[in-house]
Description:
- By secondary structure, the protein is mostly helical.
- Helix content is about 65%, strand content about 5%.
- It is elongated, with a radius of gyration of 16 Å.
Amino acid sequence: MATLDMFTLTVPVFSRALNNLLHILQKAQAHVEAKQLDPAALIQFRLFPDMFPLARQVQIATDMSKGCVARLAGVEIPGYADNETTFADLIARVEKTLAFIASITPAQLADTADKEIVLPLRVRTLTFSGLVYVQSFAIPNLYFHITTSYNILRHNGVELGKMDFLGQ
Protein backbone atom coordinates (compact mmCIF):
# COMPACT_ATOMS: atom_id res chain seq x y z
CA MET A 1 0.00 0.00 0.00
CA ALA A 2 1.31 3.45 -0.91
CA THR A 3 2.07 5.94 1.82
CA LEU A 4 -0.33 8.85 2.00
CA ASP A 5 1.34 12.00 0.71
CA MET A 6 0.20 14.73 3.06
CA PHE A 7 2.19 17.36 1.17
CA THR A 8 0.19 16.69 -2.00
CA LEU A 9 -3.06 16.78 -0.03
CA THR A 10 -2.28 20.21 1.42
CA VAL A 11 0.28 22.53 -0.13
CA PRO A 12 -0.87 22.38 -3.78
CA VAL A 13 -4.55 22.44 -2.75
CA PHE A 14 -4.11 25.45 -0.47
CA SER A 15 -1.85 27.22 -2.96
CA ARG A 16 -4.34 26.83 -5.80
CA ALA A 17 -7.29 27.97 -3.68
CA LEU A 18 -5.40 30.97 -2.31
CA ASN A 19 -4.12 31.95 -5.75
CA ASN A 20 -7.72 31.92 -6.95
CA LEU A 21 -8.73 34.04 -3.94
CA LEU A 22 -5.89 36.41 -4.79
CA HIS A 23 -7.22 36.72 -8.35
CA ILE A 24 -10.75 37.36 -7.04
CA LEU A 25 -9.51 40.09 -4.70
CA GLN A 26 -7.50 41.71 -7.50
CA LYS A 27 -10.62 41.77 -9.68
CA ALA A 28 -12.56 43.31 -6.79
CA GLN A 29 -9.91 45.98 -6.32
CA ALA A 30 -10.02 46.82 -10.05
CA HIS A 31 -13.84 46.91 -9.94
CA VAL A 32 -13.87 49.32 -7.01
CA GLU A 33 -11.32 51.58 -8.69
CA ALA A 34 -13.09 51.54 -12.07
CA LYS A 35 -16.50 52.29 -10.55
CA GLN A 36 -15.06 54.77 -8.01
CA LEU A 37 -16.70 52.91 -5.13
CA ASP A 38 -15.79 53.01 -1.47
CA PRO A 39 -13.69 49.85 -0.99
CA ALA A 40 -14.66 49.70 2.69
CA ALA A 41 -18.26 49.05 1.65
CA LEU A 42 -17.19 45.74 0.09
CA ILE A 43 -14.50 44.87 2.63
CA GLN A 44 -17.00 45.20 5.49
CA PHE A 45 -19.97 43.72 3.61
CA ARG A 46 -21.73 40.69 5.10
CA LEU A 47 -24.16 38.41 3.29
CA PHE A 48 -26.28 38.29 6.44
CA PRO A 49 -25.95 40.13 9.77
CA ASP A 50 -24.71 37.07 11.66
CA MET A 51 -22.01 36.28 9.10
CA PHE A 52 -18.48 37.64 9.01
CA PRO A 53 -17.61 40.45 6.56
CA LEU A 54 -15.32 39.94 3.57
CA ALA A 55 -12.16 40.93 5.47
CA ARG A 56 -12.75 38.26 8.11
CA GLN A 57 -13.58 35.66 5.46
CA VAL A 58 -10.17 36.26 3.85
CA GLN A 59 -8.46 36.21 7.24
CA ILE A 60 -9.99 32.86 8.14
CA ALA A 61 -9.15 31.34 4.73
CA THR A 62 -5.50 32.30 5.16
CA ASP A 63 -5.49 31.21 8.82
CA MET A 64 -6.83 27.78 7.85
CA SER A 65 -4.11 27.30 5.25
CA LYS A 66 -1.10 28.48 7.22
CA GLY A 67 -2.35 26.87 10.41
CA CYS A 68 -2.87 23.49 8.81
CA VAL A 69 0.53 23.14 7.19
CA ALA A 70 2.30 24.63 10.21
CA ARG A 71 0.61 22.24 12.64
CA LEU A 72 1.39 19.26 10.44
CA ALA A 73 5.00 20.37 9.92
CA GLY A 74 5.48 21.11 13.62
CA VAL A 75 6.51 24.72 13.01
CA GLU A 76 5.24 27.93 14.51
CA ILE A 77 2.12 29.31 12.88
CA PRO A 78 2.83 32.80 11.51
CA GLY A 79 0.81 35.36 13.43
CA TYR A 80 -1.02 38.09 11.55
CA ALA A 81 -2.61 41.14 13.17
CA ASP A 82 -6.04 40.75 11.47
CA ASN A 83 -6.11 44.48 10.78
CA GLU A 84 -6.63 44.54 7.01
CA THR A 85 -8.82 47.45 5.88
CA THR A 86 -8.05 47.73 2.15
CA PHE A 87 -7.92 45.41 -0.81
CA ALA A 88 -4.16 45.96 -0.92
CA ASP A 89 -3.98 44.74 2.70
CA LEU A 90 -6.06 41.64 1.95
CA ILE A 91 -4.02 40.88 -1.18
CA ALA A 92 -0.78 41.25 0.81
CA ARG A 93 -2.12 38.85 3.45
CA VAL A 94 -2.90 36.21 0.85
CA GLU A 95 0.52 36.69 -0.77
CA LYS A 96 2.24 36.38 2.61
CA THR A 97 0.32 33.16 3.29
CA LEU A 98 1.23 31.76 -0.12
CA ALA A 99 4.91 32.48 0.58
CA PHE A 100 4.71 30.69 3.92
CA ILE A 101 2.98 27.66 2.44
CA ALA A 102 5.59 27.54 -0.33
CA SER A 103 8.30 27.33 2.34
CA ILE A 104 6.95 23.99 3.60
CA THR A 105 8.74 20.97 2.14
CA PRO A 106 7.42 17.48 1.46
CA ALA A 107 9.85 16.13 4.08
CA GLN A 108 8.23 18.33 6.75
CA LEU A 109 4.84 16.75 6.07
CA ALA A 110 6.04 13.17 5.65
CA ASP A 111 4.35 10.69 7.98
CA THR A 112 1.88 13.22 9.37
CA ALA A 113 -1.36 11.42 8.39
CA ASP A 114 -1.54 9.87 11.87
CA LYS A 115 -0.05 12.84 13.74
CA GLU A 116 -2.31 14.05 16.54
CA ILE A 117 -3.57 17.56 15.90
CA VAL A 118 -5.10 19.31 18.91
CA LEU A 119 -7.06 22.42 18.05
CA PRO A 120 -8.25 24.55 20.99
CA LEU A 121 -11.33 26.56 20.07
CA ARG A 122 -13.26 29.10 22.13
CA VAL A 123 -15.83 26.63 23.45
CA ARG A 124 -14.06 23.27 23.14
CA THR A 125 -10.93 21.49 22.00
CA LEU A 126 -10.92 19.28 18.92
CA THR A 127 -8.50 16.42 18.40
CA PHE A 128 -7.85 14.91 14.97
CA SER A 129 -5.41 12.69 13.16
CA GLY A 130 -3.49 14.71 10.57
CA LEU A 131 -5.47 13.20 7.70
CA VAL A 132 -8.87 13.78 9.29
CA TYR A 133 -7.83 17.34 10.19
CA VAL A 134 -6.92 18.06 6.57
CA GLN A 135 -9.89 16.34 4.96
CA SER A 136 -12.72 17.15 7.38
CA PHE A 137 -11.70 20.47 8.91
CA ALA A 138 -9.02 22.51 7.12
CA ILE A 139 -10.01 22.01 3.48
CA PRO A 140 -13.79 22.38 4.03
CA ASN A 141 -13.21 25.55 6.07
CA LEU A 142 -10.86 26.96 3.45
CA TYR A 143 -13.40 26.45 0.67
CA PHE A 144 -16.29 27.72 2.77
CA HIS A 145 -14.54 31.04 3.45
CA ILE A 146 -13.26 31.48 -0.10
CA THR A 147 -16.73 30.68 -1.45
CA THR A 148 -18.26 33.21 0.92
CA SER A 149 -15.69 35.81 -0.16
CA TYR A 150 -16.57 35.12 -3.79
CA ASN A 151 -20.30 35.38 -3.03
CA ILE A 152 -19.91 38.69 -1.17
CA LEU A 153 -18.05 40.20 -4.10
CA ARG A 154 -20.32 38.71 -6.77
CA HIS A 155 -23.39 39.89 -4.87
CA ASN A 156 -21.93 43.41 -4.93
CA GLY A 157 -21.42 43.49 -8.67
CA VAL A 158 -17.84 42.35 -9.11
CA GLU A 159 -17.80 40.51 -12.43
CA LEU A 160 -16.76 37.07 -11.31
CA GLY A 161 -17.53 33.71 -12.80
CA LYS A 162 -17.02 30.08 -11.97
CA MET A 163 -13.57 30.02 -13.57
CA ASP A 164 -12.43 32.85 -11.28
CA PHE A 165 -13.25 30.56 -8.35
CA LEU A 166 -11.86 27.39 -9.90
CA GLY A 167 -8.82 28.97 -11.55
CA GLN A 168 -7.16 27.98 -14.78
